[in-house]
Specification:
Blueprint (H helix, E strand, L loop, with lengths): L1 H15 L4 E7 L2 E2 L9 E6 L3 E10 L5 E9 L6 E7 L4 E2 L5 E3 L4 E3 L4 E10 L4 E10 L5 E11 L12 E6 L4 E6 L6 E7 L4 E7 L3 E5 L5 E9 L2 E10 L1
Parallel strand pairs: 3-12
Antiparallel strand pairs: 1-2, 1-4, 4-10, 5-8, 5-9, 5-11, 6-7, 6-10, 11-12, 13-14, 14-17, 15-16, 15-18, 18-19
């Protein structure tokens, strides 16, 4: 009987250890909920002196959560003038490489808080390895996500258009982009037949599937990097 109770206790403890939050990248206010970032490393290769990371942290527990956000920089090769960390409540200028927000975020069941970090670099060809933690009200870690950020303004990527494939699915309401060479941070733009920009997203992953609610008509899907057009595809929504 004691063994059974002990096993039940361990089982319940294991269930409680399942993460109570999920991290997602955010692109233009839209959360990429199909790609949960918990425990992963997201790689960024930037060509600008100003870099902004935007993501969401969702409460996936069975109750409300009081969250603190911790940002820790591990790398020693970073060099920037200043940075900023924002949540749904306030924006902070973190002090040092290990910073925890002083005010908790109260998240109801299923709610998402915006997490935004911005970096202004003082030079080029530097890198940052940074981790973001979700902490409970007692400052215990719930889960985390890592970012490896490389800033090299003097580096230009050479693209092979054949290594990027654009496919339309589900009566052209879904767009699938395969980036087999994992080119860094491509931009997807959709224009209507008159040339008006309908939607745009940043592509962070080798494979991305996006859902759109198109009106009937003809659209042009464009993949570019810093204004350099790499691939285009015309789709017709019925």
């Amino acid at each position: 009987m004691i063994k059974q109770l002990f096993f039940t206790f361990l089982l319940l403890l294991g269930l409680r250890s399942i993460s109570q939050v999920e991290f997602y990248l955010s692109n233009g206010g839209v959360y990429d909920t199909l790609n949960i970032l918990n425990g992963t490393t997201v790689n960024f290769n930037e060509t600008s002196s100003f870099v902004e990371l935007t993501m969401g942290c969702k409460n996936t527990s069975s109750d409300s959560l009081d969250l603190f956000i911790k940002r820790k920089i591990f790398t020693s090769s970073w060099s920037f003038l200043n940075d900023q960390l924002c949540d749904n409540n306030l924006c902070y200028s973190p002090s040092g490489s290990d910073f925890t927000t002083p005010i908790e975020i109260v998240l109801g069941l299923g709610e998402i808080t915006v997490l935004k970090s911005s970096f202004l670099f003082s030079n080029t060809n530097v890198s940052i390895y940074v981790r973001y933690y979700a902490l409970d009200e007692n400052l215990n870690m719930i889960d985390s996500v890592d970012f490896s950020l490389n800033n090299a303004t003097s580096t230009n990527q050479k693209f092979n258009p054949s290594e990027i494939v654009i496919s339309s699915l589900q009566n052209n309401s879904e767009i699938f982009v395969s980036n087999t060479s994992n080119y860094s941070k491509l931009n997807l733009k959709i224009h209507n037949i008159l040339g008006k920009l309908i939607n745009e997203r940043v592509l962070y992953y080798p494979e991305t599937k996006l859902n759109f609610d198109f009106a009937k008509g003809t659209y042009l899907v464009t993949i570019d990097s810093n204004g350099q057009v790499i691939k285009t595809k015309k789709i017709v929504a019925n």
